[in-house]
Amino acid sequence: MSSDQTRQDSPFRSERTARDESPQFVLPLVVRIERAAPPARTDALETAARAVLVILSDERSLGEGEWARAMRDWQDARIRKVVRRARGAEWRRAEALPGITVTGKSAEVRVFPPVPLDGWPKDLARLQVSGTDLEDPEPPMEADPTAPVLWLNPDLEMSAGKAMAQAGHGAQLAWWALPEEERAAWRDAGFPLAVRTAPPSRWQELTTSGLPLVRDAGFTEIAPGSCTVVADHPALRGD
């Protein structure tokens, strides 16, 4: 899917579209937050974005795979992602459900095949959405300009859980926009990426660059239509 097609038929637009007439699904993500050792915020965002890419590219999500129907139904409707938190026994119960755990430097995120909006498995439905406020012990390093970067809007305040979902949206739009050869190269490299807050002086340039842009539907925390993430993959740059 080209970036132009992505913008015209974006599952993240705030306006009502044909996608709203389809049954609605959600992609559950669970981040492990132990009291004694919570993950760093940026690492949690990056791990969530990679988790989305991992499940999109997993053989169970493709063709006749066991998750393929759910993935197709989810992608035909609004693209919703909800991040919940778990610790201890909650995390162990979540790990027992079908899904994929992706590990970062300090973060663990488990992604699950999509479920109906009102049909969450009970062991996931009981997990809390709130309480995902995380911090970086020290400022993240400058992003490598030769690698994919998911740029966050510097003017928006988002909880870590909300930002994790938005980073996942950005990664997904980049994945859709890439040709198959570039997708394979990214996957084979282990989906390297960075999530950074854009410098205020660059944000306008990024949003008008033609790169994939997430406009939030406004279900939680921020106003409908807000630009949240620009997916800056080297293969999608115009230069």
From TrEMBL:
GO terms for molecular function: hydrolase activity. It holds the Pfam family PTH2. It comes from the Bacteria. It is an enzyme of class 3 (hydrolase). InterPro entries: Pep_tRNA_hydro_II_dom_sf (IPR023476), PTH2 (IPR002833). Its EC number is 3.1.1.29. The keyword RNA-binding does not apply. The keyword Hydrolase applies. It catalyses: an N-acyl-L-alpha-aminoacyl-tRNA + H2O = an N-acyl-L-amino acid + a tRNA + H(+). Residues 1-20 are annotated as: Disordered. Keywords: Hydrolase. This is peptidyl-tRNA hydrolase. It comes from Streptomyces cynarae. The lineage of its organism: Bacteria, Bacillati, Actinomycetota, Actinomycetes, Kitasatosporales.
